[in-house]
Amino acid sequence: MPRQARLDAPDTLHHVMVRGIERTTIFRDDRDRAAFVARLADLATQGALSVYAWALLPNHAHLLVRTGTRPLARSMRSLLTGYAGAFNRRHKRVGHLFQNRYKSLVVEEEPYLLELVRYLHLNPLRAPVVPTLRALDRYPWTGHSALLGTVARPWQDTRTILRQFGPTPTRAKRAYRIFVGAGLLQGRRPELQGGGLIRSLGGWAAVAALRRGREAYAGDERILGSPGFVEQLRREVEIAHPAPARRLALATLVGRVCAHVGIAPDALQGGGRTPAVTRARAGIAYLWVECLGHPGRPLAPVLGLHPAVVYQAARRGAAQAREWEGLLTRIRKTT
Question: What is the pTM of this model?
Answer without folding.
Answer: 0.66
